[in-house]
Design brief:
Largest sheet of chain A: 5 strands, parallel
Distance between the termini of chain A: 10 Å
Strand content of chain B: under 5%
Low-confidence stretches of chain B: 1-27, 198-225
Radius of gyration of chain A: 13 Å
Largest interface: A-B, 40 and 43 residues
Number of helices of chain B: 9
Low-confidence stretches of chain A: none
Structural class of chain B: mainly alpha
Oligomer: heterodimer
Order of helices and strands of chain A: EHEHEHEHEH
Order of helices and strands of chain B: HHHHHHHHH
Helix content of chain B: 55-70%
Mean pLDDT of chain B: 73
Radius of gyration of chain B: 31 Å
Shape of chain B: elongated
Shape of chain A: globular
Distance between the termini of chain B: 60 Å
Strand order of the largest sheet of chain A: 2-1-3-4-5
Structural class of chain A: alpha/beta
Largest sheet of chain B: none
Mean pLDDT of chain A: 95
Number of helices of chain A: 5
Number of strands of chain B: 0
């Protein structure tokens, strides 16, 4: 099934610069319906408003709720548990990748990253677009 | 320092005449007698004995015991006295480093400078992205081939701007480390100037409420509700050679499939 580029994407990061970078790269890939959150708890609130999101792209190291905690909350929520979830983080140790995978992450991108990597991981999670 | 052999009957279970000294010689000090002398010192100085007075207290104890000490007792207490002198010398050396200056001037200044670096790089990155977005906005109407070439350039600009995120996280790590150093310097200043800072020392010489031991230091941030094992995963950007690359991440994830 073709990916609907009109899907709503939620990006979560506590650095405004990174939110802006991801938003611009997504826009270049044809995704224009983008919402932002500055930490896991704000993201969780947005996800539970009833707005339908097709993808979450989240940083890990944020306060008060980390990306890993957000991921666990999402996977534990009956309505959200199948949400595609990509972690984009500078946390680049094997144990981080394993912990995220065990929590149910769909894919994992190490910062700094490029547009090609972002697209490849989105394709692997959502399918070709 | 301590005697290598434990004499039979040296424990308190052997009755009121248990030995508080090492094996062997002459006059033996009863545990009750030592307790009595410690009680006298406690009555005079309380539970909190500033480091300054450690040597004095030890000497006072030695003097008060001089009438009934064994040779082993003397050796043991001399070593304690040496230890007290060593602490005094260390105190003098640390005082010469002017820890108060480090705490009050150098560390805050370094943290402020680093904060300024983050702010200025963030502002500069914002300007660069403003410009790149303006260029993209102006692409409408251009031939697609030209627009694609320019868009490829702006993509590279966006990618390059992620340096600010990484730089910010690295600097934040350094600032947190400085804060930990500041806390420990603060502890040193308080430990060596307890009267000035109104801090009491516990039996081990640690100031009450002092910072956690160095082993408990964390470079990352514990988010609210974070489990300890999660907190240990927060390390921020790694140095070259420490971080795994995207290829390694992909290989690791593939093992779960």
């Amino acid at each position: 099934m073709a990916v609907d580029k009109n899907m709503r994407v939620l990006i979560v990061d506590d650095y405004k610069t990174m939110l802006r970078i991801i938003r611009n790269l997504l826009r270049q890939l044809g995704f224009n319906n983008i919402d932002e959150a500055s930490d896991g708890s704000q993201a969780l609130q947005q996800l539970r408003t009833g707005t339908v999101y097709g993808l979450v792209i989240s940083d890990w190291n944020m306060e008060p709720m980390t990306g890993l905690q957000l991921l666990r909350e999402v996977r534990a929520d009956a309505k959200l548990k199948s949400m595609p979830f990509i972690m984009v983080t500078a946390e680049s140790k094997s144990e981080n990748v394993i912990a995220a995978k065990e929590a149910g992450v769909s894919n994992y991108i190490v910062k700094p990253f490029n547009a090609e990597t972002l697209k490849a991981k989105m394709v692997s999670v959502l399918g070709e677009f | 320092m301590a005697s290598e052999e434990t004499p039979k009957g040296a424990g308190p279970e052997t009755g009121g005449e248990s030995s508080a000294a090492g094996p062997g010689t002459g006059g033996r000090v009863t545990a009750a007698a030592v307790d009595e002398r410690i009680a006298a010192i406690r009555a005079r100085s309380g539970d909190s004995v500033p480091l300054d007075e450690v040597a004095t207290v030890v000497r006072s104890l030695l003097d008060s015991l001089s009438g009934d000490l064994s040779a082993e007792d003397v050796r043991l207490y001399r070593e304690v006295e040496d230890l007290a002198r060593y602490i005094q010398a260390a105190k003098a050396e640390i005082a010469a480093l002017n820890p108060a200056d480090i705490r009050e001037e150098f560390l805050p200044t370094a943290a402020d400078e680093l904060d300024a670096i983050v702010q200025s790089t963030e502002a500069a990155t914002g300007e660069i992205m403003d410009a790149a977005e303006s260029i993209e906005d102006a692409l409408a109407g251009l031939p697609e081939e030209t627009a694609a070439a320019i868009r490829a350039g702006t993509t590279r600009i966006y990618e390059a701007c992620s340096f600010q995120d990484i730089t910010g996280q690295r600097v934040t790590k350094v600032v947190r480390t400085l804060k930990s150093i500041e806390d420990r310097v603060d502890g040193l200043v308080r430990a060596f100037e307890p009267e000035r800072h109104g801090v009491s020392l516990d039996a081990t010489g640690r100031s009450a409420g002092s910072a956690a031991p160095a082993g408990a230091m964390r470079s990352g941030v514990a988010a609210a509700g974070d489990k300890a094992e999660d907190a240990a995963l927060l390390n921020g950007p790694q140095g070259q050679g420490e971080a795994i690359r995207q290829d390694d991440v992909d290989a690791l994830l593939a093992k779960f499939d």
